[in-house]
Amino acid sequence: MNNDLFSIIIKLALAMICGGILGMERGKKNRPAGFRTYMLVCVGATLVMLTNQYLCEVYGTGDPARLGAQVISGIGFLGAGTIIVTGRNRVKGLTTAAGLWADACLGLAIGVGFYSAAIIGGLMILLVMSVLHRLDDRLVANARNVDLYMEFQKMSDLGAFMVKIKEFGMKITEIEMTKSNSTEDIGIAVLLTLKLEKKRPHAEIIQVLSQVEGVCYLEEI
After folding, report:
1. Are the C-beta atoms of residues 96 and 78 closer than 8 Å to each other?
2. Same domain membership, residue 108 and residue 13
3. What are the tens digits of pLDDT across the range 154-168?
4. What does the longest C-alpha to C-alpha distance in the chain come to?
5. pTM of the entire structure?
6. Whether the Cβ atoms of residue 185 and residue 112 lie closer than 8 Å to each other
7. How many domains does the structure of the chain reveal?
């Protein structure tokens, strides 16, 4: 399909709108990549497809999907930049990175003129990022495995805590010593994974464990 001026304007405008809508959702959650980032990625991907089509039409050679394929793989560097690992080994930014990749794919679909897939795909991406995260949070909050970051004053406090864990009907499946980020003189910090006998709200688990003697700090990660 030939790209006249009107078609180019429509495609780039649609890419700006779709990318902006997705970016607004991320921006409201104060994520590293927000409104303008998503908009630029989607417009850029659309522009790449338009350029690829132009090269094929004008010069009559080349693969019409070649530049688009480079966008799919090249967007990884931008997505990787939004993923961070906090001092407590908590990984953040995975959804934002995946959203940027999907945003680029959306731009490619718009650029090639596949509007029905672009609009339906864009709505589904928005649904996943804005609505289904609540379901995801609910599933995580009631899972049988709980990942915790904990700080103790001394090693004996950790030993006493492990005894209490058994009394509460829980089991430690993984444990790792780590560096404390506290400004106080904390003797030991650990990352551990608890397995529950049955599903219980994690908030309830944290409240019970935080009252165990010797626990200086407790946080779910």
Report:
1. no
2. yes
3. 888 888 888 888 888
4. 76
5. 0.66
6. no
7. 2
Tell me: pLDDT of 27 over 80: no
Distance CA 190, CA 175 (A): 7
Structure tokens that stand for 45 in this block:
């991907």
- Interhelix angle 66-74/94-111, rounded to 10 degrees, is 170
| Residues 31, 114 within the same domain | yes
Length of the chain, please? 221
d(Cα 154, Cα 8) in Å, to the nearest integer?
A: 66
Q: pLDDT-based confidence at 180, cuts 50/70/90?
A: low
Among 45-54, 106-115, 130-139, 191-200, which stretch is predicted with the lowest mean pLDDT? 130-139
- Indicate whether 12 and 112 sit together in one domain: yes
pLDDT, residue 11, reads 92
Residue 20 in tokens: 């902006």
**Residues 69 and 164 reside in one and the same domain:** no
User: Which structural domain, as residue segments, surrounds residue 190?
Assistant: 143-220
Q: Is the pLDDT of residue 78 over 80?
A: no
Residues 147 and 128 in one domain: no
Strand partners, 219: 149
Distance between CA atoms of residues 15 and 96, nearest Å = 18
How is 138-201 classified by DSSP, letter by letter?
HHHHT-SEEEEEEEESSHHHHHHHHHHHHHTTEEEEEEEEE----SS--SEEEEEEEEESS---
